[in-house]
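Hello forum,

I keep getting stuck at the same step: I have a sequence, I want structure tokens, and every attempt I make locally crashes halfway through. Rather than fight my setup again tonight, could one of you with a working pipeline run this one for me? It's a single chain of 193 residues.
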Amino acid sequence: MKIFCTFNIDYEPLLKQTIEYAIENYGKDLNIDTLEEIELADKKLFPYSTEGKLISKERIVLSSETFELLPYLDITQLYDNIYFKEIVNTIIHEMGHLTDYVSMPHLYDCVFNPKNKKHYLIALFWLEYLAESRTANLGLVNYVPYCENFARESWDIKLYSENPNYFNRYNYYWLNKHLSYFIPRAENNLHKY
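Reply #2:
Ran it on my machine without issues. Output:
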């Protein structure tokens, strides 16, 4: 598997070590046989804030957003760092998508090649829900603040938009996508409310 970072080669050794660490410690149930490359890309290349994205059965792209928050580029100093844990969580989330892609290609086809908006949103919800259910239970990230903020939101859906750049309480796409994250995160943190 090719693991690389072209925009800042200083990140590349840490990226490789972090992926090895994530697979070794959290990847025993993942099927990543088709994965050929993982790239760490400049966060400016993404149209919205994201930590990573499955591009195809062969490729995952991670955003530099969380990497830029790390205080060190030495993995031995990062195991307890919250940003490092978020990166590991993201790697497993995206690899989980790949695992699901191999076993449910028709649902991923609805998302990657949308022909019907209704099918697209339904497939997107369930695929994100499955991937997030896998990682919410790892215990790497404290999701209580996210859940509390989401639960406090006052929904007033007035706009149907598939534009992920338009994240607010009026956008149905935003609600649909983030419910798939909220539900498993809240289920995993019920004892904290």
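The chain has seven helices and four strands. If your local run keeps crashing, start a new thread with the error log.
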